[in-house]
Write a structure and sequence with these properties.
Blueprint: H1 9-46, H2 65-78, E1 82-86, H3 92-103, E2 109-112, H4 122-125, E3 141-144, H5 154-160, E4 167-171, H6 184-197, E5 202-206, E6 225-229, E7 243-247, H7 249-259, H8 275-305, E8 309-311, E9 323-326, H9 330-342, E10 364-367, E11 380-384, E12 390-394, H10 399-415
Parallel strand pairs: 2-3, 2-4, 4-5, 5-6
Antiparallel strand pairs: 1-7, 6-7, 8-9, 9-12, 10-11, 11-12
C-alpha cells in the first residue's frame, strides 16, 4: 500500500513488478551518477570555489570573479576550452539561437543532420515565419538530412557535407519525435563523417536533456560547440533560469559578442545574486539527472506492463531523460497528464487542458507542477494533441515523488475507464 494516496491494488502490484524489472538499470544509473558527481566535485576543488564566488555584482558587472570562475568550472566539466554560463539566457531556445547567430554569418550554410529540429527553433532558422529576423532573413542558408529508419543517415550526411558547409547541427534529444535520442557515440560517428568531408566544418550540438546522462559529453567526441538550458539537466533543479554555451574558445567568444555586444563579450554582465544557485545547480545536477533517469525507467516499465508502447524500453540504453509513452487517444493522453499534475507538489489542484501554446503547430497539453516555471528537470508530461497521441515525460527531482505521480496518472486513467491491461 502507498501511504497518503488511494491507489488501486492492480496498479500497486504492477508498480512492485516494475521496480523489480528496474533494479539492474538503477544500478547502472547509480554508477554513471557517481562518476559525474566526482567529475563535478573535482572541478569545484580544482578551481578553489569559495563563498567569495557567490558575491553579487551590479551595473556592468566588471571583474565578477564568480561569473568568470563559473565559466571555467563548466568548461572543465564539459571538456571544453571555454564556456559561457549566464542567468540571462531566458530559455534553451534563446541559448541555441545566441550560439547560431554568434557563429553564422550571411552566406553561410547550416546543415541539420538529425531531420527537422524541435518546433521552437523553426522561427530562429526561418523554417517558419517571415521578417522576424530569422537566420534566413540574414541570408544564412539552411538544409537538412532526413533520418533513415529513425536514425542519422551517415551515408547521406557524408554526401551532404562539402567545402561550402559552415555548420553541421545535431539535435541530441528527440523533441516531439519518436526517433531514439543520440548517444555520445552516435554523435561521435556524425562528427567523424562530417569532418571527413570538411575538416573545418563547425559541429554544433543541441545538448538539451542530455547532460550527465552518460559519462562523456559531445565535446569529448569532437563536437565544436554545445548549448543547453539551466532549467533542464544542467541546473539540477536549483537554477531558476539561464543557459550555457561551451566548446572551442573562439566560437564561445563569438557567442558572447552576440549575447552582449562586440568588443565587450564575456567581460560584462551583472550576476545580481544568481551565482550561488548556478554553482549549486551544477553541483546537484549529476544526482538530479540520475533521479530523473530512474523515474523514466520506472514509468517505462510500469506502463509497458499495462500494454502501452514505450520508447525507450526500460532496459534500453538512454541518451537523455525523456520517456515517450503511446497513449493511443486524446482522452487517455489528457487523463495521464491530469494524473501527473494531481501528484505534483505545486499546482496539484490544476486540471491541464489542451491549449494553443506559442511556438507549436498543434494544441499542447502539459502537466508541470514545478517550483521553477517550465523546468523540465522537474517532473513534467506534455504532448501535442495529434496522432499518434504520445506523451513526452521528463524529469523528476527525486524518484520517490515521480513514482507516486506515475501511479496517480495510472489511477486517473483507471478511474475514467481508460487504463489498459
Amino acid at each position: 500500500m502507498t501511504p497518503f494516496f488511494q491507489i488501486d491494488p492492480k496498479i500497486e502490484n504492477a508498480s512492485d513488478n516494475a521496480l523489480k524489472l528496474c533494479a539492474e538499470q538503477f544500478a547502472h544509473i547509480d554508477e554513471i551518477t557517481e562518476y559525474n558527481q566526482l567529475k563535478v566535485q573535482k572541478a569545484f576543488i580544482d578551481n578553489g570555489i569559495s563563498e567569495t564566488h557567490f558575491t553579487s555584482s551590479t551595473g556592468y558587472g566588471y571583474g565578477d570573479r564568480g561569473r568568470e570562475t563559473l565559466d571555467r568550472v563548466w568548461a572543465q566539466v564539459l571538456g571544453a576550452e571555454d564556456a559561457l554560463v549566464r542567468h540571462n539566457f531566458v530559455c534553451g531556445t534563446h541559448t541555441l539561437a545566441t550560439a547560431l547567430y554568434g557563429v553564422l554569418r550571411p552566406g553561410d550554410n547550416m546543415l541539420c543532420v538529425t531531420g527537422t529540429p524541435y518546433d521552437t527553433i523553426h522561427g530562429v532558422i526561418g523554417i517558419t515565419g517571415e521578417g522576424m529576423g530569422s537566420l534566413k532573413d540574414f541570408g544564412i542558408n539552411y538544409s537538412e538530412v532526413a533520418l533513415k529508419d529513425n536514425r542519422p543517415n551517415l551515408d547521406a550526411i557524408t554526401d551532404a557535407v562539402n567545402s561550402e558547409t559552415t555548420m553541421v547541427y545535431i539535435q541530441r534529444s528527440r523533441g516531439y519525435e519518436l526517433r531514439p535520442s543520440l548517444t555520445v557515440d552516435d554523435i561521435g560517428k556524425i562528427v567523424k563523417a562530417a569532418k571527413s568531408q570538411n575538416p573545418n566544418v563547425i559541429v554544433m550540438v543541441d545538448n538539451c536533456y542530455g547532460e550527465f546522462v552518460e559519462k562523456r559529453e559531445p565535446l569529448e567526441v569532437g563536437a565544436d560547440l554545445i548549448a543547453g538550458s539551466m532549467i533542464k539537466n544542467a541546473g539540477g533543479g536549483i537554477a531558476t533560469t539561464g543557459g550555457y554555451i561551451a566548446g572551442r574558445r573562439d566560437l564561445v567568444e563569438k557567442c558572447s559578442y552576440r549575447l552582449t555586444t562586440p568588443g565587450l563579450g564575456k567581460e560584462v554582465g551583472a550576476t545580481l545574486g544568481m551565482n550561488r544557485e548556478l554553482y549549486m545547480g551544477l553541483f546537484y545536477a549529476p544526482h538530479t539527472v540520475g533521479e530523473a533517469l530512474k523515474s523514466a525507467v520506472y514509468i517505462s516499465a510500469l506502463f509497458s506492463s499495462f500494454g502501452y508502447d514505450v520508447t525507450p524500453k526500460y532496459n534500453e540504453k538512454r541518451a537523455d531523460i525523456v520517456q515517450c509513452l503511446g497513449l493511443e487517444n486524446e482522452e487517455s493522453l489528457v487523463a495521464f497528464c491530469q494524473g501527473i499534475q494531481s501528484g505534483s507538489p505545486i499546482d496539484s489542484f490544476v486540471l491541464p487542458e489542451p491549449w494553443d501554446m506559442p511556438g507549436y503547430d498543434s494544441k499542447v497539453v502539459m502537466a508541470a507542477g514545478a517550483f521553477t516555471l517550465g523546468s523540465s528537470i522537474e517532473l513534467s508530461a506534455d504532448a501535442p494533441i495529434r496522432e499518434p497521441f504520445y506523451a513526452w515525460i521528463q524529469g523528476g527531482l527525486n524518484f520517490h515523488s515521480a513514482k507516486i505521480c506515475a501511479k496517480l496518472a495510472a489511477q486517473q486513467m483507471l478511474n475514467k475507464g481508460l487504463l489498459k491491461g
